[in-house]
C-alpha cells in the first residue's frame, strides 16, 4: 500500500502529460477554410484561403498540398491553373518546434471546357470472330493484335484485320480473365481483370517473357502508351494510371471529368495524336481525354454501331479501339461482334 501511494502522484503526472500529446488535440489545432467556397471549381479558378490557428501555436513554416502534390501559395491565394481534375484534398502541413500539424478541406475540380460532340461514317467493314470477347485492340504496322476475355476463353491473338485470319494465338490459363493490351518496344503487355497480374510477351512469337502486378489500382481494364514510353492503365473507375514502362509500377493517375461530372467505368484505351481515347463501359461512346489533367475534350457517339452487327444472345457492348496513323480514322469492334468497322470521325 505504501508503494502504491508513492507511485500514484507520478502516474498521475504521466497520464496528464500523455493527455497533452493526444493526437486529437493536434488534429484540432488548425483548420483550413476557403473564402467564398463553391461546390465545384475549374482550373481557371483561384482559391482564397484562411488557415485558422485555433490554439495560438507559433508556427515555423506552412506547406500546402493538393493530394500529395506540393503547391505554391501566393499570399493566401492558390491558383488551380494546370492542376489535375478530380476530387482532391487541399492540405496544410504546419511545423512548430519539432511538431507537425495538419488541416485540410476537400474540393472538386471540373473541366473548364464543354466536350465537343462527334459522330461517325463507316468506310469499310471486315470480318471479326463472333466468339471473341474483345478487351484490347492495337495495331503494330498493319497487323492487328487482340486480347479477349472470359474465364477459360481468354486469348492473345495476332491477326489479319482485313480477313479475320489469326496468324498466331496464345491461350491464357483458365483462371485468368484477359483484359486490355498495348505494344511497346517489341513487347506486348496484357492485363487480367481481377487476378492482379499482367503478362509480358515477345511481339513476334507471343512467348511469355514476364509478369507484373498492380499497385493501388485494384483491377485491370485497358492499356495504351504514348510516344514518351509512358503506359496508361484503366481500372474500371474514373481513374487512368500512368505506369513506368520499365518496372510497370504506377507513378500517378488522372481522374476523368467533364465540365459537369466525372466519367466512371473507363475501359479500353487507345493513344491517338496526343490524346487518350477511352471506351466508356456500357455507354456506346468514346471519350477523348487530355492525358495531362483528365479533361474530356470530346465524345464520339457510337451507340447505334452495335445495331449493325449480327444480333445474338451473347452479343455485348462496344469495346475495342485501334488507330493506325490515319487522321480521323479508327477501327472499332465490340464484345462478341462479328464485324470490325473502319470509321471516320466527324464533328457534329
TrEMBL record:
Chain segments annotated as coiled-coil in the UniProt record: none
Superkingdom of the source species: Bacteria
Database matches in SUPFAM superfamilies: YVTN repeat-like/Quinoprotein amine dehydrogenase (SSF50969)
Family matches, as PROSITE patterns: PROKAR_LIPOPROTEIN (PS51257)
Keywords for this protein: Transferase
One Gene Ontology molecular-function label: glutaminyl-peptide cyclotransferase activity
Protein's recorded name: Glutamine cyclotransferase
Organism whose genome encodes this protein: Aequorivita soesokkakensis
